From TrEMBL:
Record PTM 4-aspartylphosphate, positions in chain: 54
GO biological process annotation, one example: regulation of DNA-templated transcription
GO molecular function: DNA binding
Location of the HTH luxR-type domain: 142-207
Protein name: Response regulator transcription factor
Keywords: Cytoplasm, DNA-binding, Phosphoprotein, Transcription, Transcription regulation
C-alpha cells in the first residue's frame, strides 16, 4: 500500500479526494492536514510514501511546508495539487523540492496515477507546467553545463527525463544499479542541481528532451 498524507485547507476537497484514493487497492490515505504547519508535523511523524500538498493554505502555505519537510526529510516525495499556474507558485514549489505538480482540474484517476508514478521515482508535471518551464528557460541565456556530461551521463539524463527510475535505467542499459547511482550523482553535480526533478527541468530548459 502507498501511504498518503493529504494537505488541503478545503474540507470537502479532502473528503472527496481521500475517499476516492482510499478506495484504490494500492493507496491508503493515512492522514489529512488542514494547513501547512499540520502537514509538516504529520509528515515528519508518519513518514508517508507520498504527500499531496495544496499551495494556498492558512497559517503556512504549501511552498513553505514543502521547504520545511524537505529540509528535515530530503527523501520525502511531495506532489503539489493546486489550482494555480502562476510563476510565483510553480517555480518556488519545484525549487522547494516538490517531486510532481498537478492541477486540481485533473481527474481523480490522474491524481491516483501521479501518486503511483511519483512513488516509483518519476516526475509528473502537468503539460501547462512543462510549457511554462520551457518558455521561461528559453528566454534566459543558456550556460550549457550539460557540455560537461559524458555520452553515458547524457543518455542517463534523457532516461531520467522520461521518468525512468534508477532500476529501470540499469535494466535498459544493462549496467549495475550502483553504477547508475554514481552516474546520477555526477549528473547532478555537473549540472549544479539539487535533485532529479531539477535535472529534468534543466533537460527541458536546454531542449534536451523533445
Amino acid at each position: 500500500m502507498i501511504k498518503v498524507l493529504f494537505a488541503d485547507d478545503h474540507e470537502m476537497v479532502r473528503i472527496g479526494v481521500s475517499a476516492y484514493l482510499s478506495a484504490q487497492p494500492d493507496i491508503n490515505v493515512i492522514a489529512e492536514a488542514e494547513d501547512g504547519g499540520v502537514a509538516v508535523k504529520l509528515a515528519l511523524e508518519l513518514k508517508p510514501d507520498i504527500i499531496l500538498m495544496d499551495l494556498v493554505m492558512k497559517k503556512m502555505d504549501g511552498i513553505e511546508a514543502t521547504k520545511k519537510i524537505i529540509e528535515s526529510w530530503p527523501e520525502a516525495r511531495i506532489i503539489i495539487v493546486t489550482s494555480f499556474l502562476d510563476d510565483d507558485k510553480v517555480y518556488p514549489a519545484l525549487e522547494a523540492g516538490a517531486a510532481s505538480y498537478m492541477l486540481k482540474t485533473s481527474k481523480a484517476n490522474e491524481i491516483a496515477d501521479a501518486i503511483r508514478a511519483t512513488f516509483l521515482g518519476q516526475t509528473i508535471l502537468e503539460p501547462e507546467v512543462t510549457g511554462k518551464i520551457m518558455t521561461k528557460m528559453r528566454q534566459k541565456q543558456q550556460t550549457h553545463l550539460h557540455d560537461q556530461l559524458t555520452e553515458r551521463e547524457l543518455e542517463i539524463l534523457l532516461l531520467i527525463a522520461q521518468g525512468k527510475t534508477n532500476q529501470d535505467i540499469a535494466n535498459e542499459l544493462f549496467i549495475a544499479l550502483k553504477t547508475v547511482k554514481v552516474h546520477v550523482s555526477n549528473i547532478l553535480t555537473k549540472l549544479d542541481v539539487q535533485d532529479r526533478t531539477q535535472a529534468v527541468i534543466y533537460a527541458f530548459k536546454h531542449n534536451l528532451v523533445i
